[in-house]
């Protein structure tokens, strides 16, 4: 079962540092049909319900050109998550795995990412399919799907660098 804020058998919680290292701007709000974490999809699907991404002013000024992309990568802040569980038991069976080997919403920085299909752009509102978050989840970034994006800036040395032979 998808977790809420419980600590399960076999899990490891650590004390969180008093100091944080960076700040974020929430650039909008995601509107979805889900109001309970236990009802959300565990991962969004491209044929799922159409959801809305409301981009707030002044960040909506950055949307120009986005309609050219059929798919976007959306980053959002899973604001109801606890952040201290380094080992987690997704099946709640006493078997725990490290957080960084999971796509759990419970992470030190609870950033969720989804690839979504862009259905329509309506001013500062994007209509998309493929999300899995609660209604009201804060938006932190939007980018073209990397598989559809060709860099516009001139090429630079690192682009041509390949690894050493093993
Ligand atoms: N697709 C993203 C990823 O892979 O990074 C998120 C996957 S995460 C497993 C999705 C789950 O996060 C949902 O099923 C729900 O239980 C939980 N969730 C959704 N919105 C949330 C929110 N605002 N705060 C905390 N948890 C949330």
Automatic annotation (TrEMBL):
What keyword terms does UniProt attach to this protein? Methyltransferase, S-adenosyl-L-methionine, Transferase
| Entry's family note | Belongs to the tRNA methyltransferase O family.
Query: From what superkingdom does this record's organism come?
Result: Bacteria
Listed PANTHER family = TRNA (ADENINE(37)-N6)-METHYLTRANSFERASE (PTHR12818:SF0)
Please name the InterPro entries in this protein's record: TrmO-like_N, YaeB-like, YaeB-like_sf, YaeB_N_sf
Tell me the organism's taxonomic lineage: Bacteria, Pseudomonadati, Pseudomonadota, Alphaproteobacteria, Hyphomicrobiales
Recorded protein name is: tRNA-Thr(GGU) m(6)t(6)A37 methyltransferase TsaA
> The TsaA-like domain covers which part of the protein?
24-154
NCBIfam families from the xrefs? Answer: tRNA_TsaA
Q: Does the keyword Cytoplasm apply?
A: no
